[in-house]
Design a protein that fits this description.
Self-incomp_S1; 6-stranded mixed sheet; globular; 4-stranded antiparallel sheet; transmembrane; S-protein homolog; mainly beta; signal
């Protein structure tokens, strides 16, 4: 089970940001385990994972003059539906599980077209994990011809999926 930061959504200029709720002190400790498990600490808007890397998963609409609907989930976490206008993006932060089994998938809708796929899994964890502590970026760009994932090693976007 992965855990994401409790979030609110706000719009700043052309960007929708999912950001941590302002809280004075929250500490998450897994209820049962004999092994060191992830711990999520939130102090104000500070985000920290312990023993495991943290990630920032971002999805941006790159389709001019269009709004897309995005609904993202994990097994036990619903990130919710988001409507993104052109150049608008949203993101959320989460800690990887100790055994690296975190999986998030999103269902994308644009007019009569749609697509669903994993936006984060074990393979992507290794691609996104750039030793940035709790801020390892995983960036997706939605275009009219498909879905692109940013490869930080190559410094470029690579097409991963077509619309259906």
């Amino acid at each position: 089970m992965s855990h994401h930061v409790l979030c609110t959504k706000r719009t700043l200029r052309a960007s929708t940001v999912v950001e941590p709720l302002r809280t004075s002190f929250v500490i998450y400790f897994p209820a049962t385990s004999l092994l060191p498990q992830q711990k999520l600490f939130v102090f104000g808007t500070t985000f920290a994972c312990v023993y495991v890397p943290g990630f920032v998963l971002s999805i941006q609409n790159g389709i001019p003059d269009s709004t897309i609907k995005v609904h993202c989930k994990a097994k036990d976490t619903d990130i919710g539906e988001h409507y993104l206008s052109y150049n608008q993006e949203f993101h959320w932060r989460f800690c990887e599980t100790y055994f690296h089994h975190t999986l998030y998938f999103c269902h994308f809708y644009w007019g009569s077209q749609e697509q669903v796929f994993d936006v984060f899994n074990t393979t992507m964890m290794y691609t996104c994990n750039k030793d940035k502590g709790d801020n390892n970026p995983c960036d997706w760009l939605v275009q009219s011809d498909g879905f692109y994932f940013y490869d930080f090693d190559k410094g470029s976007w690579g097409k991963q999926y077509d619309w259906r």
